[in-house]
Design goal:
Order of helices and strands: HHHHHEHEHEEHEE
Largest sheet: 6 strands, parallel
Structural class: alpha/beta
GO cellular component, one term: NuRD complex
EC number: 3.5.1.98
GO molecular function: histone deacetylase activity, hydrolytic mechanism; metal ion binding
Mean pLDDT: 89
Enzyme class: hydrolase
GO biological process, one term: heterochromatin formation
């Protein structure tokens, strides 16, 4: 159902790609190697475990036919351009969030060792602000669920854009370590400096690796593998969350890296831990 939503003409975010991904799984027989679940619609109460009540109330209320009544709130919550109002906006957020939270619940109950939400990975959304095509931060909500059973959770982000929303949510805690590999400089969202390392109890638990344009598989692996191996050794998380944005692949219209699918497979070696994958790739190759 999530493939039915439409951000608007010309918008890079295309939820219909999720349906395409599902069909590929069916046609190649990959579904036989996994259990497929329909996500529940996350409630407003679930969303406000991180997001502000006012913001979620706004997302529930705004529609294309009543936007004029919410002009001030749209500006306040950064909704309108990159994050447009479209038919079924809140239901889209419910399904995306519901899939990630449900995956975390299954991991907590030890009903699986790995969970994937094709419609997840909306890592730019803030507590009271939409950003970068993201409205509700399903990753943060899934990590909060994992923290009920896991003392330490590692978050790895290989999207070409810095995982700013997730980093911000856990910037002052040592229970979540965030590691982001991304393009830095005059590039959305403009955060993720090497010197951004966390604050308070979270100091040294935010790790950022800005990368140059054109990085290839070999160079990426030489950076990624030793860093993540050391992080795993020192931090010893009992759960790992991966955001696997495909905009770091060569040829992406908004990206500038030169990675292949082979170069993006890095996360597989960490599947001995309880892992949540949020690809965000089937429906968005942008920020």
């Amino acid at each position: 159902d999530i493939g039915n939503y439409y951000y608007g003409q010309g918008h890079p975010m295309k939820p219909h790609r999720i349906r395409m991904t599902h069909n590929l799984l069916l046609n190649y027989g990959l579904y036989r190697k996994m259990e497929i679940y329909r996500p529940h619609k996350a409630t407003a109460e679930e969303m406000t475990k991180y997001h502000s009540d006012e913001y979620i109330k706004f997302l529930r209320s705004i529609r294309p036919d009543n936007m004029s009544e919410y002009s001030k709130q749209m500006q306040r919550f950064n909704v309108g351009e990159d994050c447009p109002v479209f038919d079924g906006l809140f239901e889209f957020c419910q399904l995306s969030t519901g899939g990630s939270v449900a995956g975390a619940v299954k991991l907590n109950r030890q009903q699986t060792d790995m969970a994937v939400n094709w419609a997840g990975g909306l890592h730019h959304a803030k507590k009271s602000e939409a950003s970068g095509f993201c409205y509700v931060n399903d990753i943060v909500l899934a990590i909060l669920e994992l923290l009920k059973y896991h003392q330490r959770v590692l978050y790895i982000d290989i999207d070409i854009h810095h995982g700013d929303g997730v980093e911000e949510a856990f910037y002052t805690t040592d229970r979540v370590m965030t590691v982001s590999f991304h393009k830095y400089g005059e590039y959305f969202p403009g955060t993720g400096d090497l010197r951004d390392i966390g604050a308070g109890k979270g100091k040294y638990y935010a790790v950022n690796f800005p990368m140059r344009d054109g990085i290839d598989d070999e160079s990426y692996g030489q950076i990624f593998k030793p860093i993540i191996s050391k992080v795993m050794e020192m931090y010893q998380p009992s759960a790992v969350v991966l955001q696997c944005g495909a905009d770091s692949l060569s040829g992406d219209r908004l990206g500038c890296f030169n990675l292949t699918v082979k170069g993006e497979h890095c996360g597989r070696q960490y599947s001995q831990k309880r892992v949540s994958f949020f690809p965000r790739s089937p429906f968005r190759r942008s920020h």
